[in-house]
Design a protein that fits this description.
5 helices, disordered N terminus, about 40% helix, Oxidized Rhodanese, domain 1, about 15% strand, two-stranded antiparallel sheet
């Protein structure tokens, strides 16, 4: 067994200095024993069963980040095609700050104000975090709007 504290037990033994160079030799133990460190931890199915909620949450966050960046990259083309920028936050939130060129239609009023949004032009939705605009996107898609995009927070419209 290796006595060096930086050496992994049963994996590699570090030899003594020989002519000013260090050399490494394979342990006399079997090659399968080198993987004993892996056997001491849980296997992948057990890991997945135990931590799937954390993994799912991480994947959801990664997807939201990827999707928002995709919409941001499409924004100049969408604006060129006459996109309607809709902020679905409350009137009070909108009054405290908003992106230039956005119209405010609070999520609670969206069902009654479909007439203000043309169905043939792209619609870019935003809110404070992306949650309400995600709900608004589903509502618009259910009501026949085909080109609807959720950019997430309204501050991402200001950066463009």
């Amino acid at each position: 067994m290796c006595q060096n504290r930086y050496c992994l037990p049963g994996v590699l033994l570090v030899g003594k200095m020989k002519a000013g160079r260090r050399f490494v030799k394979q342990s006399t133990k079997s090659i399968l024993h080198q993987f004993s460190l892996i056997r001491s931890y849980m296997h992948f199915p057990e890991f997945l069963q135990k931590y799937w909620p954390v993994i799912a949450f991480g994947l959801w966050i990664a997807y939201k980040w990827w999707r928002t960046n995709k919409v941001i990259s499409m924004l100049p083309e969408l604006k060129k095609n006459g996109a309607i920028l809709v902020d679905v936050r409350s009137s009070g939130e909108f009054a405290n700050g908003s992106a230039p060129g956005t119209i405010n239609i609070p999520l609670q009023e969206l069902g009654n104000r479909f007439g203000e949004i043309p169905k043939n032009s792209p619609v870019v939705l935003c809110c404070a975090s992306g949650t309400r605009s995600g709900m608004a996107k589903r509502l618009l898609k259910r009501n026949g709007y085909l080109n609807v995009h959720n950019i997430g927070t309204w501050k991402k419209l200001c950066a463009e």
